[in-house]
Structure formats: structure tokens, C-alpha cells
Amino acid sequence: DCSLWRSAHKNRINMAFKGEDHLDSLPLPVQRMHLIQVDSVQRWMEDLKLMTDCECMCILQSKPISIEKDEQNEFILSSQYSTCDNLQLLLKRAWIISTELTRIAQKLEKNRWQRVHSMTVRVNCHVRSMINEYNTFTRNSSEETHQFEKLLIDKCSEFTAFTERCIQTEDEQILKSMKSCINETLTTIAQYFGQLIELVLTHEAQNLLRQIEFSDSVYVTESAISSLFSLTQEGAHLCRIIAKEGGVVVLFKICRQDCFRGLYPQTLRTLASICCVEEGMHQLEKVDGILCLADILTDNTHSEATHAEAAAVIAQITSPHLTFTQHLSSFLENMEEIVTALVKLCQEASSGEVFLLASAALANITFFDTMACEILLQLNAMKILLAACSDKHIVDTPYSRDQVVTILANMSVLDQCASEIIQGNGVQLLMEMLFERSSSGNSAEVAACERVQQKSAVTLARLSRDPEVADAAVKLSCIPRLIKLCRSPTERNNSDSVLVACLAALRRLAVMSPDGLEDSDFQQLVKPRLVDSFLLCTNMEESFV
Question: Which residue intervals define the domain Protein inscuteable homologue C-terminal in the entry (predicted)?
């Protein structure tokens, strides 16, 4: 289990912490289907078989090549796909159709009738293939689904006939009059296609949820939860479908049964994905999900993997980037025990992934309610977090340091925080964070490094109202580093937010220790209005070659 949740979370966290503060939320509302992000050449290679089979059907004009029963004539994927997940193949085919419909609209706009017709034939084949594929592995689809299948096939045939007539005439007036009919038909096909996919995905989500809820077999339940998790990774729209069909309720039932303890990590991971949408959050509140999470976090008999996944759910539902967390009234009732459990998880974390999830949840909670900072202070969380940062096996990425410095920045508004920082050698840590640089050049990691620099400067600015902290910062040569970050765009990766934070910290330290600056630095970075110093530093990026 450890390898499963560890690899899943590393991918999920890398994507999650892209926002201005940190969690950019898993995820966000997506209008069109979004499949697995892979290299474009790899995607083309995977699609090639589908496209080739489809072209064969175009030549045959979708006619059977034998006199056997229609069921035997259905186009299905070649045997190499038999082991693939059927829903993934369905989603891939749906993505291809969606892309083709968009391209048809573009070609139609340019009056490229020959291309429009050939693409229409291809879409017609893809639609028939998708429906046949789906019906080969689903024997109990609804009557409504069959009605939409027929409507879509009929409309696609009508569309193909329309475009065929268009390539047989060169009269511009006739083509112009037919164009509006073709546009209307294309719109109708897109609507029918969208409704059919919605019905199919809803039907499959219902099937999976029924398996999870009513199966007594751990193996069947595990397989269904795994499939459900795969669906949640296809975008927010699928998460909404699952939430509306009662997915959160069903999964929390699993989390309340001891016989399924081995499935808790996988179940909680799926819950975290579903709760990126408002419908999932509302359901979580209705089933007392916060209380269940608190029970899991405070139960020492659960595995570290289970605690880590529960922390991931907390991190998701308290993300400062979500606009629908205000209704989580029950969270405030359980906040103290949740925060206590998360601090303990940070302290006892055996890996960087576990620490990252626990610290991310704590960081979000400090945004969620200011009382959390006072609880953290009482729990000596500052000391625990600073100690963890000295262990490079635990705080091993910019993402983890981003969470730690977020907590420090939010706690630094408390007057008592300054003495804790001094005792834990926190000023030295903040100084080191001003040098945070990406080792890989990955865009998400670069953004995380910028946030670490920005928040460490913000924390220094807030804490330097205490003379002891300011004196320690000056002795550690924070002023020269802040000046370099202001004057050198490459040091801050051209980040304006880092520049503003560094200017603010520099001005605070200059008040406490004016002798630490040269006159030119004082005249340009401290004496003017903040906006003037900002403009001066940003103009240094321009080239006058």
C-alpha cells in the first residue's frame, strides 16, 4: 500500500501547490473532458490504432463484411486492448470525437468543404465505434442511453449526407445556404454527444458505487474504489457526477467499517479527489465527514498511510483557494484535536511525503481560522517544524519548505512567536530560504521556490518588529541578501511578489539597523515610496541593446 499512496501523492502534490499561496486546488471546473497528460508523441502513438481502424471503416462506409448477426459485426478494439480498462478506452474515444468536432467547426469556418466531409465521415465512424465498444462491456445500460445513442447515430448520418452534398456542388450561394444547416446540425451532434457521455459516465459511476456499498468482498470493493479513483483523475466534471450520485456518502461508510481498514488509504485518497468540487464538500458536511476524519487522525491504531491520506483530505477541504469552505462549521468544533493530530504526524513522519501532507493541512488551517495559530503555539509546533527542517530526509523539497514557511508567516502575527523563532534558530532557516532555488527547472518547482522566498521575506518583515529578531537577521547578513534579491531579477526568477516582500523586509530591517545599508541602497530601496522602489527594480530587467 505504501508505494501506491506515495507515488499517487507525489504526483498530486506537485500539481496541487501551484497557487499563489500553495494549494491551487485539485484541482478546478473543467468544461471539456481532460485526459491523462502525456507526451504528445506518446499520445499520438496510442491514438494511432484507433485512427487507423477508423480509416478502414471509412473505406467500407461502415458496412459489414460478413452475413453474420449484427452483434458479431460490431467494431471493437484489437486484442491488445483487451486488458485495458474499458472506461479509459471510452474516455479516450470520447476525447477523440470531441477534438474532431472542434476541428470540423474550424474547417467549416474556412469553407474547406472537402476536409469537412472527410472529417465528418471519420466522426461518424468514431461515434459508431464508441457506442459499439461501450455496448460490448455494458449489458444493462438504460433505455434513455439507447435513445440518445440512436439520436446521435441518426444525426451523424444526416450530417455526413449534408457534407457529401456540399462537395458535389460548386455554387457559392447553395453552399452558403447549407452552411447554416450544417452549423446547426454540428451543434446538435455536440449536444447529443455531451448528453450521451454524461449518461454513460453517470451509469458507470452508479455501478461502481453499488459495488462498493453492497459487496461483502474486500477484493471487489478494492477494485471498485480503484476504478472510482481513476475516474476522479479525469477532471472536476467527473468528480461532480460521482458526488451527485452519493460517492462521498458511500466512501465514508467504508471508512466507518473496521473490516475495510486495509482500504482506508485508498478510500481517503478518492475522497480527497472528489472534495475538490462543491458538491463533494456539501456531502462531506452532511455525513459528518469532519468528525470521521478527526476520529481517524486521533486513532493511534491506524497506519501512518491512513493518517497521511486523512491529512490529504483535510488539506483539500481547507484549501484557501476554494470559495466554498465557509459552510464547514463542524470543522471548527473539531479543529483543536485535528491540529493536535497533524502536529504529531509532522513530528513522527517517516518520509517526506507524509510530512508534506500533514504540513500542507496545517498550513491551510492557519488560513482557515486564526485560532489555529494560537493552538499551534501552545503545541510547540514552531519548535517541531523548525527541527523537521534540519532533517533533509523529511523536509526534502521546496514544496515541503513552502508549507513550513507558510505556517511560520501566518504564526508570525502573534507577538509570542518571536521568542520561539529565536530559540529554534528560525532566523537562520528564514535566511537559508531566501536562497531557495529550483534544481530541476520544473515550472511547478520554480513557482514553489518563489513562494518560499516571498514568504520567508514576509515572515522576516513581520518578526523584525521585535528588536532581538531584527538584530539576529542583521548579524546573519540578511540585508545584503535582500538587496541582491531586489536588484537582481534572476535571483528572484523575475518574480514581482518576491520583490515586494523583500522591499518590505528591507525597510523594516533598515529602521532597526540603518547602518547596515550603503547610501545608494538607502536612497533607492528604502527612502522612496514602495511603489517607486518597485518600479526602479523592475526597470532593471529591461534591455536597452
Answer: 93-545
Instruction: Supply angle C-alpha 386, 411, 366, rounded to 5.
Output: 105
Interatomic CA distance for residues 346 and 192, integer angstroms? 50
CB-facing half-sphere around the CA of 451: CA atoms within 13 A: 27
pLDDT at 153 over 80: yes
Domains and CATH numbers, the chain: 81-203 (1.20.120.330), 425-544 (no CATH)
Cβ distance 201 to 210 under 8 Å? no
The per-residue pLDDT for range 78-93, each reduced to its tens digit, is 333 332 367 788 888 8
Judge contact between 134 and 200, C-beta under 8 A.
yes
For residue 150, the 8-state DSSP code is H
Distance CA 316, CA 331 (A): 13
Q: What angle do CA 151, 155, 161 make, to 5 degrees?
A: 150
Cα–Cα distance measured from residue 459 to residue 505, given in angstroms and rounded to the nearest whole number: 8
Handedness of CA 507, 509, 512, 514 (dihedral sign): negative
Asked whether 276 and 235 are in contact (CB, 8 A), the reply is no
pLDDT digits (tens, 9 = 90+) for 457-490: 999 999 998 899 999 999 999 999 999 999 999 9
> Which pLDDT band, with edges at 50, 70 and 90, does 57 fall under?
very low
Angle between helices 443-463 and 2-16 (to 10 degrees): 70
Q: Can you tell me the distance from the alpha carbon of 518 to that of 502, in angstroms, rounded to the nearest whole number? A: 17
| CA atoms of 22 and 383, how far apart (whole Å) | 22
Three cell numbers written together for 254: 467504508
Burial of 121 (0-12, 13-18, 19+ CB in 10 A): buried
Q: Which amino acid type is present at position 399?
A: Y
Query: How far, in Å, CA of 108 to CA of 116, rounded?
Result: 6
Q: Of 249 and 72, which is predicted with more confidence? A: 249
Contact between 454 and 493 (Cβ < 8 Å):
no
Taking residues 221-242, report their average pLDDT: 92
* Stronger pLDDT, 514 or 335, i.e. the higher one: 335
pTM of the entire structure? Answer: 0.78
